[in-house]
Amino acid sequence: MDRIQLGSQGAVVSRMGLGCMGMSEFYGEPDDAESIATIHRALDLGVTFLDTADVYGVGDNEVLVGKAIAARRDEVFLATKFGNVRRKGEAISGIDGRPEYVKAACDASLARLGVEYVDLYYQHRVDPNVPIEDTVGAMGELVAAGKVRFIGLSEASPATIRRAHAVHPITALQTEYSLWERHVETEILPTVRALGIGFVAYSPLGRGFLTGRIEDPSKLGPKDARSARYPRFAAENFEKNRVLVDRVRAIADARGVTAGQLALAWVMAQGLDIVPIPGTKRRKYLEENAAAADLSLSEDDLRELQAAMPSSEIAGERYAAANMKAIDR
Fold this sequence. Notes:
This protein is an alpha/beta fold. The chain is about 40% helix and about 15% strand. It is built from twelve helices and twelve strands.
């Protein structure tokens, strides 16, 4: 796996990362042993950019990732996040960007991960009640204290990104981006590129939709939250969206690759400043995803893919209404 520069502050990461959220929550039954084996296999393949957050499994995911990397910390570029407030057994209750919370959350994450520092520390969602200057100022103090190497934002608007970057250099913005979700192309990508900020694309496979393997979301299982959390998986939208992924799958079949690999290659083809972090908890899918880094797409390929899945034909919002309120737009 190639390594590239993320942002303009010196961070270097693998060309593709690994999102670890689904190992602990949201996408079916956890399997810690297979998840740890998947992280180890990722490191073996050179996929060393690992992404977690304190809210995933309410801390459990950080514990899992920490256990997996304990003997291999020096191989890992480790990212985690703070800001979403949640207790065990409950939904997210709010967002907290107060400086004192930032520092307490970082210490708690370091303890769960079992590390002395994290490479990249994101504000998971922007707190509308706390000036971004105050939050980022506290994050900068964590850098000065050696607890964090680089800082980032997630789902922030162009105006917020600019204000934050004026206080302390922002290394990366993490926001959803895929063939299925291209809202960042209008204002957000031009903003981060103008400022020298790297872009980390989460859900580059559309939460598994772009693999073409999900044929009936009602059969995903009781611990899979996709149908409840994401309107595009709701029955009335899913059938319309499946027509689009079938087009992508047909293009992939003609090339002898999977739809998921083609979707990941499309994201990476959008620029060397964009790093996708597809999530999986299984080694076989990790290996399939990693192979996408070797795919090269021509301009004709890119046009064909975008024509197959035009934004105007995508049915449903990317989050339920309550979750969309937390997006800083």
